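Table S2 (text version). Query chain:
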Amino acid sequence: MSADARAAASPGMRGTARARVQAFGGFLTAMVMPNIGAFIAWGAITALFIPTGWLPNAYLAELVGPMITFLLPLLLAYTGGRLVHGARGGVIGAIATVGLIVGAEIPMFLGAMIMGPLSAWLLKQVDRFVVPRVRAGFEMLVNNFTLGLLGFGLCMLSYVAIGPTIEAANGIVVSGIDWLVALGVLPLLAVLNEPAKVLFLNNVIDQGVYYPLGLQQASVTGESIFFMVASNPGPGLGLLLAFLLFGNSQIVRRSTPGAIVIHFLGGIHEIYFPYVLMKPITIIAMILGAASGIATFSLFGVGLVAGPSPGSIFSYLFLTPPGNHLGVIAGVVIATAVTFLVTAAILKIERLRGGGADDDGTLLSAREQSAAMKEEGKSLLVTTLAATNVGGVGHLRSIVFACDAGMGSSAMGATAFRSRLKKSGIEGISVTHAAIEDIPADADVAVIHEKLVDRARRSRPDLDIIPIASYMGDPALDQFLEAITADRSTT
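Corresponding structure-token output:
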């Protein structure tokens, strides 16, 4: 394991700026992801029943307005509040957000994502002060009245002051974005988006900026390009196709077909990140491909009716409104082609120069790193399990695979490891997946990517963690399984 990875795994390491930004993005993701189904439901109703939809129906189209004005912001506010202070936080977040909704003329998505967590945090501080001072028998009375009275105050404040302020700020942001669109420089967002993806920072801009802007625009026009500026599956597909056909290593070429299926059809973009990290210069191809896709979307004037999550081609096609399919497909295809051609050129030039012949240096480095990780993983595993409160491997009852959003790579890793346990005849161990900020309190061991360990330590310093470089086929996971198997065979 590299020195950086070891430092990231160290519990005493202070949070880096990137980890803090990742944590913020992870919180936004945890607020949005549980409600994606509601956004898709609203998108389907919009795509079908508005006057320009597939099946125009004025009666059913009446659902569109109340859902985007009330339902979706309240869901975001409740979820954000619940993340901060449980059910009480969710309730007061929704109460405060009603004031925003009624006091503004635009859908209050951004306001809900602010007021939900903020209101819950304020209630949490009140509870910390009040609860220790409440006499026995008065808990329910005090709890209900503190929530109700604080909620009353926040709702009034939101309606009178906070809502209009957020609406004014939102107007400035939207005007700035419209100005960029008018200048035709929207494709330049790829310069920010693509590096952010491979650094696990994409959720900050995607969930925090593009989704709220997209929903607001879609509420007026029925579609939005902002849903596509960071989720286009084309660049990742082009990158993987180039490695499949021109990769300098048989191992790399053999790994890409499965990655293509998971990325393009499954919508799990994290699967291609290691390929970019293996050859950082390919980020140029990703930027050019993504920018070409955005430019194509802009040229055709197309958009989606809701955010595609996960970013699968199936999600794209399902959420494309009538008349937009040609432009959407063209944007994906052109982004794929540009990324493929640039990546292929990079790989061919590298081969001609001899620097990447069969990727010997890369593979050797990877083998050394894997060996070091394997040895270090053994000692780390021993240390981790010795410190586990439940008393060792044989007493494990809950393993959690955690990643940025808790929906992509960690889900795949959990499924694969659960299957391996079953094949080994090991029962009685729960293997689940979760977002970094939402790891269950009763988890015995968490399996987390080494780049996210620092972030997990900040939120759960007492957590027993096994850091890995890949959620699939990592040597540390092999050691973990061997340790569990060996312990079970001796008990």
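Notes on Table S2: The longest helix spans residues 139-183. The CA atoms of residues 401 and 433 lie 5 Å apart.
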